[in-house]
């Protein structure tokens, strides 16, 4: 299991570049079939551009069940959890190859 401290991979403005950086760190671990703990300590808010370049891409790359069983989110706020969930679910709903997983 790999723990990724999100604060170590973002700048102060939390933008699309940060999302891309986090995406690649997570993806590298998932490609090795490792479980990933995402630690959101010290992160209070995320932007949609961050989410689009991280979690939306992960949802495009991986099946819902795989992400659900390999990603754990820790030390996160209720708002961040909701934003991530909505981003991932909307990605699957808009992609016919993944939409079945949500039923």
Task: Explain this structure.
The chain is mainly α and 103 residues long. It has one domain (2-102). The chain is built from five helices and three strands. It has a three-stranded parallel β-sheet with strand order 1-2-3. Helix 1 links the parallel strand 1 (2-5) and strand 2. It is globular. The model has no long low-confidence stretch (mean pLDDT 91).
Which key terms come to mind for this protein?
103 residues, single chain, three-stranded parallel sheet, 5 helices
Spatial order of the strands forming the largest sheet: 1-2-3
* Structural class computed from helices and strand pairing: mainly alpha
What's the overall average pLDDT, rounded?
91
**Total helical segments:** 5
Distance between the termini: 29 Å
Gyration radius from CA atoms, angstroms: 13 Å
**Major sheet:** 3 strands, parallel
Total count of strands: 3
Q: Element order, helices and strands?
A: EHEHHHEH
User: Per DSSP, what share of the residues sits in E-state strands of 2 or more residues?
Assistant: 5-15%
Low-confidence stretches: none
- Helix content range of the residues, please? 40-55%
Rough outline: globular
Tell me the count of domains.
1
């Amino acid at each position: 299991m790999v723990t990724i401290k999100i604060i170590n991979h973002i700048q102060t403005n939390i933008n699309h570049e940060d999302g891309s950086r986090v995406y690649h760190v997570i993806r590298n671990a998932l490609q090795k079939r490792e479980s990933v703990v995402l630690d959101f300590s010290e992160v209070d808010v995320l932007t949609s551009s961050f989410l689009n370049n991280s979690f939306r891409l992960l949802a495009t790359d991986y099946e819902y069940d795989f992400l659900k069983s390999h990603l754990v989110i820790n030390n996160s706020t209720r708002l961040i959890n909701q934003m991530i969930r909505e981003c991932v679910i909307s990605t699957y709903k808009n992609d016919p190859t993944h939409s079945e997983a949500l039923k």
